[in-house]
Amino acid sequence: MDPYANKSYWPMGFGQLTLTGIEEHYELGVWLRKRYSGWLPEVYSTEDIYIRSSDYDRTIMSAEANLDGLYPPVEPKKWNQLIPIHTVPKLQDNVLAMSEACPLYSQELEKIQNDEDVQSFYAQFSSVIKYIFNNAGATMEEKSKPIYFITTVFQALTIESKFNYTLPDWTKRIFPEPLTTIAIKNYELSTHNNIMKRLKCGPLLKDIVTHMNEKKHGSLNPNRKLWIYSGHDTTIYSLLNTMGINNNLLVPYAAVLMIELRLNNTGNYVVTVSYRNTSIHDPYLLQVPGCDSVACDLDQLTEVLIPFIPNDWDTECKINVKNNTSELLIFFLGVISAIVIILILYAIANKRILHYGKRSYYYTF
């Protein structure tokens, strides 16, 4: 049983943003302000930025804390700038919470969970899973959903460890390993094949690709500079996996993925993808498979991502599995925390030199 499943240990409530989380997200906002200083105006305007969050207290509060750092008070005003955060109900959210019902996706997930290779992976940890069930007090219903239960146990131990709580002795056998390895597999299953990637991340990718191409062609209205999406560790993990740039590590608290549209010195629009998963290291510059370089031509990136963007998500979710798979293949060939906050930003930066490790990437705008 979990000795810390008591509200006295979590004054903000179960599943809510902690004071430590608020501080981390505020500091991330300060870091983003420094990154975009001189390009993103210091005073908020709806013409510059749009913020969307999943409909959870913790993700909305994470976005608020981040925005306090990104948009500090400006003289002569002494109070924080008020910035709207947009959201939709959880069960209607196929972009960030990714929890809107999709029958085809559910069937694909069930099929993958019964896949021989997947079953073989979990079989090697059968004694570990049984050990967790027995010591964590799993109910019969929870045992019937082992992937969900094991992930929940992992998340609980992770946050308790972060707060320096003494973990029960029984957890020493399984945490951080091999529980972390099992948890990573649990996260990976959500976007295990191309159909699942398309249905899970397609709506979010559609937003990103559409806005970038509208920016390029001068049809973006309002002509904003920045979009911020505040979601979950599962959101960013699924996106990294879909784009082929997953590092097979879990997403830490206050991680940020930045997708930035740039105009290079030859007049071409290129996209860079940077991942900041720690405050003690510069963001990692990632190269999307199928792109010729880390500064990927926008048209090339669009072509790479199109197979994962559904034309009509609702229709693809509802049609028969066999027929749907066939149509998807034709389409592919035809177009040859909380504790966690996730920010996906894309913009046209202004006279910026990026330094990553020993490499520097220069862009003129």
From TrEMBL:
The keyword Signal applies. SUPFAM superfamilies: Phosphoglycerate mutase-like (SSF53254). The keyword Secreted does not apply. It comes from the Eukaryota. Its EC number is 3.1.3.2. It is an enzyme of class 3 (hydrolase). Pfam families: His_Phos_2. PANTHER family: ACID PHOSPHATASE-RELATED, PROSTATIC ACID PHOSPHATASE. This is acid phosphatase.
